[in-house]
From TrEMBL:
Keywords: Transferase. It holds the Pfam family NTP_transf_2. GO terms for molecular function: nucleotidyltransferase activity. Residues 13-68 form the Polymerase nucleotidyl transferase domain. This is Nucleotidyltransferase domain-containing protein. The lineage of its organism: Bacteria, Bacillati, Bacillota, Bacilli, Bacillales. The keyword Transferase applies.
Length: 232
C-alpha cells in the first residue's frame, strides 16, 4: 500500500469524529487491503463498535471517496455466520477475512471475528438448492431461445451479451464459489476454469459457440430445457 494512502487514512480517521464515541475497531477492507486498488478505488472501512444498527455512509475527503460500514459486533457476526451463508454473495465475509485492522480498542474480539470470517470464507457458500438450479436452467434456456430466434443483429448481440453474463454468474453459483465483482470475474475464472474462459472468448465472435457455452454450464445439472421440437 502506498505511504500516501496510509497517511490519508490516518488523517481521515483523526478528522472524522462523528462515530468515535461508540467505535472499538476500524478495519481496512476491499481493494486497498488486498492489494488490488487502482486510482479510482474507494477506501472501504468497516467501523465496529457499540452501535445500535448497521448503516452505510460515504465521505469525500481530499478527493478520495471513503465508504464506511458502521455496525455492532453482533451484526457482523450474524452476517458472516448466517446471512451470507444462504447464497454466494460473501461481501462482508470476504472483507473481514482479508481485512487489515487499522486500530482497535478490543483486539481480542477483532481477532476472533476475523478467524470466524476466514473459517466461513474457506468453507464456501451453502450448496445451491435444486430449485435454484432449475431457475438458472430456465433463465439460460429462455435467453438462448430468444437469441436463436432473433433476426435483428443488434438485439441478437445484446442478448448474447446477457447470456455470457448470466452464464458467468451461474457458473459461480453452481460450482459453489463465492461471487466476485465483475471486474475480477474473468481473471478469477482464468485460474479456476480456463476452459470456460475459452468458451467465453469463442462466443464473442462466433454465434455457434454460444450453445457450447450454455451446455458447458448446464450439462452437469441437467442441460438446457429443450422443447420437443428441438429434441427431434
Amino acid at each position: 500500500m502506498k505511504t500516501q494512502i496510509k497517511e490519508l487514512i490516518d488523517e481521515f480517521i483523526n478528522f472524522d469524529k462523528s462515530i468515535k464515541p461508540e467505535l472499538e475497531a476500524i478495519i481496512l477492507c476491499g481493494s486497498h487491503a488486498n492489494g488490488l486498488a487502482t486510482d479510482h478505488s474507494d477506501i472501504d472501512l468497516c467501523c465496529i463498535g457499540n452501535f445500535k444498527e448497521f448503516r452505510r455512509e460515504y465521505r469525500t475527503f481530499k478527493d478520495y471517496e471513503f465508504q464506511l460500514m458502521i455496525a455492532p459486533w453482533e451484526w457482523y457476526h450474524e452476517v458472516i455466520s448466517t446471512y451470507e451463508r444462504k447464497g454466494n454473495i460473501g461481501t462482508i465475509t470476504s472483507m473481514l477475512a482479508n481485512g487489515i485492522c487499522w486500530w482497535s480498542y478490543n483486539e481480542t474480539r477483532w481477532s476472533a471475528l476475523k478467524e470466524e470470517a476466514i473459517k466461513f470464507f474457506g468453507q464456501g457458500p451453502t450448496p445451491v438448492s435444486t430449485d435454484e438450479i432449475l431457475r438458472i436452467r430456465r433463465r439460460i434456456t429462455e435467453l438462448y431461445n430468444n437469441f436463436i430466434d432473433e433476426v435483428d443483429e443488434l438485439t441478437s448481440r445484446w442478448i448474447k451479451n446477457q447470456i455470457m453474463t448470466v452464464c458467468v454468474e451461474a457458473h459461480f453459483t453452481i460450482r459453489n464459489w463465492w461471487a466476485v465483482k465483475t471486474k475480477y470475474q474473468i481473471n478469477m475464472l482464468r485460474d479456476l476454469d480456463p476452459e470456460f474462459v475459452r468458451f467465453i472468448e469463442e462466443s464473442i465472435n462466433n454465434d455457434k459457440a454460444v450453445k457450447k457455452l450454455c451446455n458447458y454450464i448446464l450439462n452437469p445439472v441437467g442441460g438446457l430445457i429443450l422443447s420437443k421440437k428441438e429434441d427431434l
